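Hi R.,

Here's the input for the K7E complex you asked about:
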Amino acid sequence: MKNFNTKTIALVLAAPLIILYSCKPKNAGTAVNSDAAAKAYVAPGKYDAFYNFVSGGFSGQMSVYGLPSGRLLRVIPVFSVDPEKGWGYSEETKPMLNTSHGFVPWDDLHHTELSQTNGEVDGRWIFANANNTPRVARVDLSTFRTNEIIELPNSAGNHSSPFITENTEYVVAGTRFSVPPDDANGDIPINTYKQNFKGYLSFISVGKEDGKMDIAFQISCPGVNFDLSHAGKGKSHGWFFFSCYNTEQANTLLEVNASQKDKDFIMAVNWKKAEEYLKAGKGRKQAVKYAHNVYSDKTHSATSEIKTEVTILDSKELKDICYMIPCPKSPHGCDVDPTGEYIVGSGKLAALIPVFSFDKIQKAIAAKSYDGEYDGIPVIKYEAALHGEVKKPGLGPLHTEFDGKGNAYTTFFVSSEVVKWSIQDLKVLDRVPTYYSVGHLCIPGGDSKKPNAKYVIAYNKITKDRYLPTGPELAQSAQLYDISGDKMQLILDFPTIGEPHYAQAVAADVVKNRSLKFFKIDENAHPYASKGEGTTKVVREGNKVHVYMSCIRSHFSPDNIEGVKVGDEVYFHVTNLEQDWDVPHGFAMKGANNAELLIMPGETQTLKWVAEKTGMYPFYCTDFCSALHQEMQGYLRVSPAGSNVQLSYSTGTNLPKADSTAAGNK
Ligand code: K7E
Ligand code: CUA
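And here is the predicted structure with K7E in place:
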């Protein structure tokens, strides 16, 4: 029990909390089959069969792995700045991280969700949630770049997000922390929680063709903690299911105070009904402030707009939108099977898994089989909604995915295992240990109508004794299991970046042929683009100096610049003229207070640099682009503020061209 310190022992003695602490499986390290290596092996030069999009937790990013090899293919910057790619440092990408609180350079990304058409993963976009400053992002899978981020008003801790409906009509976001509404005075005693705090669910519409997001409406709900969610599908299309905990409405020591009740709830939301009410004008407009940031692949720039209004539907007034279903005990995962009939709740403190039936929920609503109301919302009788319970499945169920063959796979944080069970008869069929403390799991397409059940991947919180020591913090980890047979079989461990929560995977064929090879230079609509070396120039506007620069293997144009003075703000607008796959150029400047630029072929990106001292400042390409990459460099001369050195620039000649805007050169 070396994981336990005296404080945890004290808590363990304090009884029911004991199961909060995870155990290391007894047979650690002995569960690998002899053919595991062959099953995870992808020969050099061969493609993986699946993409795996893994949330980066407190790294704020999403990482992409190939499966079954576990090879890291890319880290996509989403909510955190990334100096490697200039994300959040270049002038073009800074607006993507704008919020109503200003520039927020970090977040905590928990869930990824691929877009779907007819309930099947379509490979167009992947969504991600920001758990701290509530936001939802859309990543375009032709560029593997974050193209849109929308902030959520009336929210805090956007956890039950960004789950989607079966045609990506909506991506949802439920608030984890209930808070006073944005238009109310938040300067109130915290212990007025029960009177003043509310939970909001946001329904963000997604443009059918362009994916553009817009908050269609929010539903105001009782002040509980919304945790996870999944859309209905097939027969339950039109409904959404949200797990909620802290139905005690505690505002302090939730560890104890939000674990009082035997059952919390899964909230069933009839969003089609909500749409009707919205159309009938039952919504109330509320003044709010939230940022909506969009990146254009034509101007290669982001714009950030602050929006000022949202439409609210009140769950108390509009009686038939929301229903509570009792769910034992602090539910976390809320997962819907491929048929749309079964909804699986996972109570973190429960020793069973309740499975609810959509048909029974509908019957219960029709028959008004209620156990009173919770804060104005009807509570359906537990038994009336229940399909059945999986008995003694393990300790601490968290999340469930499906194989499309009638089986469910649930993770157990406390007993560190993945358990396979049959949805129809609720029998446990198989269990395998994970190393250790598994959170989410993923089967390719495992929350869609058509899972591709070759693998299940477990995403673990603790890896003690599993990898080489790396100081006080050890690698976060994923584990790959082959599930093509009756028994799950561990075939690979691979470390992940940040803390992995949810992840999704999809057959490589669905995504790889959409992948863009380069941006067409002819279509570059960036206002400071240089579409050929002949158009490069340096222009002074007051104390701002705009350098219209191009790059191509292996030089910058211009590469000698003089006449910049102390106090000038220099904007290097660098256009990559390459029209070939995988030839980015980098741009780095001595003394720059931000990061490099990494410019894709056909794209323009801008580095802002302030001349603070006189002297000579080299710049160079950071991305090894040719045998003469090391020659790809240049100089910028900075003169004193009052100097009469003329602004001039050149490439390959010592006959400088003067700034076209300078006196005497017009
Ligand atoms: Cu279970 Cu934030 Cu989805 Cu982590 S959450 S594990
Ligand atoms: Cu361009 Cu190295």
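One thing worth noting: Residues 1-19 have pLDDT under 50 and may be disordered.

Cheers,
M.
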